[in-house]
Write a structure and sequence with these properties.
With 386 residues, the chain is α/β, with parallel strands linked by helices. It is built from 17 helices and 12 strands. Helix 1 packs across helix 5 and helix 10 crosses helix 11. The longest helix has 16 residues.
Length: 386
């Protein structure tokens, strides 16, 4: 919609309200649901009759903000920055955001060419501590690149630490990533991520609720997290202390019925205590991208089973392994002793011992049999018996 169109239209009305109401304002969301965008915008512009649910003081503050709102200018500023306004009813609107009910965004400002709705359908949130460890950075980047290689979109908050590592990991794998900001999408926060946010806008999407030029505040970061949780199929917390804001994303995901996952860290690390508490409650432990995809993906997208290396003795028949295990490790033993240890007959033990000799596991010593040096290493793991 251009600046010359109906100022009371749905889109301009939502842009106007986005300047007046704070993100996640459930009272304002109820007004919009019950009275409609145009009516709420009209009442705020006129400022005479307060809408229900707010005090006189708060109503006066909203009316004052309404007096400074210029939705046409916001749209023009966004367009100059390469951004668009996507709102409910648009083809690009992600329907899963409607799960937020009255806390649903009035609309989202989006920078980047891809469709937000299409990308959100197959997306996972990766969040965690800003002041993270090298382990956390490594895990976030590895998970993100793995998810990108599996065809999943990585969503995070563009912040320092885990967020930045997640975005970079996805970009390094030539994958898709979305940064959900707690400020206007024409601004860069944090400043140190100017180049990263610019690269995400070129290769992926930069998204935010706040109008152009708006600045972040602590409460806006927390409210932003509900959008990350609602957009995605599941949230992975990589590293977080007990009071980490990233846990708010996990809690929002749980309330919305999304998958909640956590990456375990060292038991002694303060930056993993929040994740561990999450795992003790309701989250699912994950350690790589395949495990994440198994949880959030379609039926049949299973992580490969984990198993140790296949040892040569694993390929032996059970009866042969039993005879092999009956040989002492420090001396040659007679056939009778070996048969007794293997709980089999003498003839059966001799037959299996000749098989083992052909494979290089045992050798004949007079009337007895003994493990070879190579068998000692492969069968006993290189450790001599006590």
């Amino acid at each position: 919609m251009t600046a010359g169109e109906d100022p009371d239209g749905e889109r301009l009305g939502r842009v106007f309200l986005a300047r007046v109401l704070e993100p996640g304002d459930e009272i304002g969301g109820r007004w919009v649901r019950e009275a409609g965008v145009a009516e709420v915008a009209r009442r705020l512009r006129e400022g005479r009759e307060p809408l229900p649910g707010v005090s006189v003081t708060r109503w006066a503050g909203l009316v004052a903000r309404a007096g400074h709102a210029q939705p046409a200018r916001d749209l023009a500023t966004a367009e100059a920055a390469g951004a668009r306004f996507v709102c409910p009813g648009d083809a690009e609107w992600p329907g899963q955001l409607d799960d937020l009910a009255d806390a649903r965004p009035l609309g989202l400002w989006v920078r980047g060419r891809p469709s937000l709705r299409v990308w959100a359908l197959r997306s996972v949130a990766l969040v965690g501590a800003r002041a993270c460890t090298e382990y956390g950075t490594h895990m976030a980047a590895t998970l993100a690149s793995g998810l990108a290689e599996h065809g999943w979109v990585v969503v995070s908050g563009g912040a320092y630490g885990i967020d930045g590592a997640a975005h970079r990991g996805a970009l390094a794998a030539r994958g898709a990533t979305v940064a959900v900001l707690a400020c206007g999408v024409d601004r860069t926060y944090p400043r140190g991520h100017t180049a990263l946010i610019g690269r995400i806008a070129e290769q992926g999407l930069v998204v935010g609720e706040l109008p152009p030029g708006d600045h972040p505040t602590p409460s806006r970061f927390i409210l932003r997290n509900r959008v990350i949780a609602a957009l995605t199929r599941g949230t992975v917390v990589v590293e977080a202390a007990c009071r980490s804001g990233s846990l708010a994303t996990a809690r929002a995901a749980q309330r919305l019925g999304r998958f909640t996952m956590g990456v375990p860290g060292p038991a002694t690390s303060p930056l993993s205590t929040g994740v561990h508490e999450l795992l003790r409650a309701e989250a699912t432990l994950v350690t790589d991208a395949a495990e994440v995809v198994e949880l959030v993906g379609d039926i049949g997208e299973l992580a490969p089973p984990r198993q140790g290396p296949v040892l040569p003795r694993d390929l032996l028949a059970p009866a042969v392994r039993t005879v092999l295990a009956a040989l002492p490790g420090d001396r040659a033993a007679p056939v009778e002793e070996i048969a007794l240890g293997a709980r089999t007959t003498r003839d059966e033990a001799i037959a299996r011992l000749y098989e083992l000799r052909a494979l290089g596991y045992v050798e004949r010593h007079g009337d007895g049999w003994k493990l070879t040096r190579q068998a000692m290493i492969s069968v006993r793991g290189g450790r001599r018996p006590c």
